[in-house]
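DM from R.C. (forwarded with permission)

"hey, sorry to bug you on a friday — could you get me a structure for this? deadline for the figure draft is monday and I only need the backbone to look sensible"
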Amino acid sequence: MANMKGQGGIQMLLTAEQEAQQTVTGARNMKMTRLRQAKQEADREAAAYRAYLEDEHRRKDLESSGYSGSTVKRLEEETEVKIQNLKNMTERISSDVISMIMKHVTTVKT
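My reply, with the result:
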């Protein structure tokens, strides 16, 4: 009987040790998961702040060069209008040139 009690006590100690190791491993894994999550969150916040600083830098560059956001928008619109005008002129010139050539060809034939 004493022998059984001793082996039972040893088995209980082994079981308790295994449970303790599992608890420690679980706690370590949870801590590592939380650290990874905290690092990911810090990385996201750093990226967002970096993007904010880059935007601020671009804005200040534009302002220091004399161009505000509204000025840039106006210049973009003016550029679009100029491009459209050039397209219109090119189309008109092409048809005028073709007409003139056709008249010249017709005049030369007669």
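R.C.: lifesaver. The longest helix spans residues 2-64.
me: no worries. The chain has two helices and no strands.
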